[in-house]
Amino acid sequence: MQFDSLADFFNMGGYAFYVWLAYGVTFLSLGILIVHSLRQKRKVLVGISQKIKREERLKENRSTK
Asked: Could you give the CA distance from residue 42 to residue 55 in angstroms, rounded to a whole number?
């Protein structure tokens, strides 16, 4: 589909509200998914780091006794 002007492009043949709303919802959903995934990854990595430190402390305590 070709548009005669930039205004026609943004109007989307009278369906601009639905088209731009669909794009907005899609990009918002993807953005939320990415942010949530990065936070979950960070939480898991922090948990693993804490578990490794705890295991090292336990190992040191066992070896000193």
From this structure: 20
Instruction: Burial-class residue 19 by CB neighbours within 10 Å (0-12, 13-18, 19+).
Output: middle
Query: DSSP string of 4-37?
Result: SSHHHHHHGGGTHHHHHHHHHHHHHHHHHHHHHH
- Total number of residues shown for the chain: 65
pTM above 0.85, yes or no: no
pLDDT digits (tens, 9 = 90+) for 28-39: 999 999 999 999
Amino acid at 50: Q
In whole angstroms, what is the distance from residue 13 CA to residue 2 CA? 10
Q: How far apart are CA 22 and CA 41, in angstroms?
A: 28
